[in-house]
Amino acid sequence: MIIAVDGPAASGKGTLAAGLAAHYRLPHLDTGLLYRAVGRAAQGHEGTPEFETRAIAAAQQLDAGDLDPEFLTTRRTGDLASKVAVIAGVRQALFDLQRDFALQAGGAVLDGRDIGTKICPDADVKLFIVADAKARMERRARQFEARGQRVDRDALYSQIEERDARDRNNPHGGFYPASDAHLLDTTQLDIEAALRAAVAIVDGAMARKAKH
Ligand code: C5P
Hints:
By secondary structure, the protein is α/β, with parallel strands linked by helices. The chain has a single domain, classed as Rossmann fold. It is 58% helix and 11% strand. The chain has ten helices and five strands. The protein has helices at 13-24, 31-42, 49-61, 69-72, 75-84, 88-102, 115-119, 133-146, 153-168, 191-211; strands spanning 2-6, 28-30, 108-112, 125-130, 182-185. A five-stranded parallel β-sheet has the order 2-3-1-4-5, sandwiched between helices. The protein is globular, with a radius of gyration of 17 Å. The model has no long low-confidence stretch (mean pLDDT 95). Residues 9, 31-32, 35-36, 78, 81-82, 85, 112-114, 163, 167, 173 line the site of cytidine-5'-monophosphate.
């Protein structure tokens, strides 16, 4: 079974995808980390032609087994990730890696922006997670505060909105709900409630599939 989980920054898609992977005992790939690692590799070259060259080379050489979420989940890398994500050559280089992960025997859970539309249009179940921008900002703020970092909430809100806009307008992005995606709004849900809702969607979709 392949489960595709897409949604904007801090929508809860990563936590939900990890929860679904544990529930169904499937391997999980957070595809945002791939873009973050590529962004890191091109850091310091923004605004120069080398930014693109370095990003494409990093994407071509990326080892998905070598991604450190703790190190890559910072505001700076999120921003860099969305800048390399608009480069067609980067998306192309990361395509096979994600596709191979999805097609491993037994299936997988992948989360990102374009899993249901471009990477796995054939996924068994597609979830598109949404939550309003204020709620997403507050979640991210608490994540950073839990790590002992000080957070300027207004600046964080602007940063989330800026990244949303860049992702939405990415001409190579595929960041929109697939026509067969199930929308899940997590604005009012805590992690447990959101996971219960996601499991109910997946179970329902698989039961309907089994009938046909
Ligand atoms: O999911 P996360 O916030 O870690 O992703 C970082 C950035 O990587 C996103 O803002 C987006 O620009 C890019 N991305 C993408 N396609 C994906 C996953 C992430 O363009 N499948």
